[in-house]
C-alpha cells in the first residue's frame, strides 16, 4: 500500500501529493532550509557539480517545486531549463521567484506529470530531480519516463533522502524525523499531514542499492550512488 499524506482520504497518491504541496507552497522554501539547517543547499550544489562535465544545454527539472534546483543548475550555463511539477501552488511560488530574479528567459515552469511527461522522446541533454522521486505514485513509470525523454548519452541526476544505517546517526535521524520535524512542520505550514508524510515516505522509499537496481531496470547505465551527510541524503546518477 502506497504511503500517502492524508490517510482519511480516498484520493490516489498523486492527487494527495499535489494537494499537500499546494497547501504548504508558501512556507516550503523556509521549512526546507530551516529543517535541514541549510544542508539542502549544499546537497543541491553537489548534485549540480556532478553534471558539470556534461555541459548540458537543454535541461529538464522534474518535480521542480519552487525552482531551487533549476536555479542552481544555471551555474552550468545551459541554454534553457524546463521545470515541471504537479502542484500549481508550488509553480506559482517558483514563477514569482524567477520573475524577481529576472530568470524567466532561462527557466520555464509548467504543469507536468512526472509519469506522463509532455515531451517527445530523446529531447533533453540532462534531467534533474530533487526530493521528488519519493513522491512518484509509480516509481518505475516515472523513472522510465525520465529515460524516454533523455537523449542517448544524456545524464539523469536524482537527489533524494535516504536512511542512515550507522550508530549514532541512525538513531538521531529517526528521533528528529519522528519527533521534531513533524511538530515544527505542522506549526509553520499549518498542514497536519505534510511533515508526518515526509518521514513515512522516506522510510518506505527503496534507497541506496535498491534504487540503483530499479534505475538500471528501466534502462539507465553507468549508474552511481553518492551518499551524503552520513547517509541522510543520496545522489544517484545514470546515463541513457
From TrEMBL:
Record family assignment: Belongs to the class I-like SAM-binding methyltransferase superfamily. MenG/UbiE family.
Record EC number: 2.1.1.163
Keywords, ordered alphabetically: Menaquinone biosynthesis, Methyltransferase, S-adenosyl-L-methionine, Transferase
UniProt keyword Methyltransferase present: yes
GO biological process: menaquinone biosynthetic process; methylation
Purpose: Methyltransferase required for the conversion of demethylmenaquinol (DMKH2) to menaquinol (MKH2).
Protein name, UniProt field: Demethylmenaquinone methyltransferase
Amino acid at each position: 500500500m502506497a504511503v500517502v499524506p492524508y490517510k482519511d482520504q480516498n484520493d490516489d497518491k498523486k492527487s494527495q501529493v499535489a494537494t499537500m504541496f499546494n497547501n504548504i507552497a508558501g512556507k516550503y522554501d523556509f521549512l526546507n532550509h530551516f529543517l535541514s539547517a541549510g544542508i539542502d543547499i549544499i546537497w543541491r550544489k553537489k548534485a549540480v557539480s556532478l553534471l558539470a562535465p556534461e555541459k548540458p544545454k537543454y535541461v529538464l527539472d522534474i518535480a521542480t517545486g519552487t525552482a531551487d534546483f533549476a536555479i542552481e543548475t544555471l551555474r552550468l550555463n545551459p541554454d534553457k531549463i524546463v521545470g515541471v511539477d504537479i502542484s500549481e501552488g508550488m509553480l506559482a511560488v517558483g514563477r514569482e521567484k524567477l520573475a524577481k530574479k529576472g530568470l524567466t528567459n532561462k527557466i520555464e515552469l509548467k504543469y507536468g506529470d512526472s509519469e506522463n511527461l509532455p515531451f517527445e522522446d530523446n529531447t533533453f541533454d540532462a534531467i534533474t530531480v530533487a526530493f521528488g522521486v519519493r513522491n512518484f505514485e509509480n516509481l518505475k513509470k516515472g523513472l522510465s519516463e525520465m529515460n524516454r525523454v533523455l537523449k542517448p548519452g544524456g545524464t539523469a541526476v536524482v537527489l533524494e533522502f535516504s536512511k542512515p544505517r550507522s550508530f549514532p546517526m541512525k538513531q538521531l535521524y529517526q528521533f528528529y524525523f519522528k519527533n521534531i520535524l513533524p511538530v515544527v512542520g505542522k506549526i509553520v505550514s499549518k498542514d497536519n499531514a505534510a511533515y508526518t508524510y515526509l518521514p513515512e515516505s522516506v522510510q518506505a522509499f527503496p534507497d541506496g542499492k535498491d534504487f540503483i537496481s530499479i534505475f538500471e531496470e528501466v534502462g539507465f547505465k553507468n549508474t552511481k550512488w553518492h551518499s551524503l551527510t552520513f547517509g541522510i541524503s543520496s545522489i544517484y546518477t545514470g546515463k541513457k
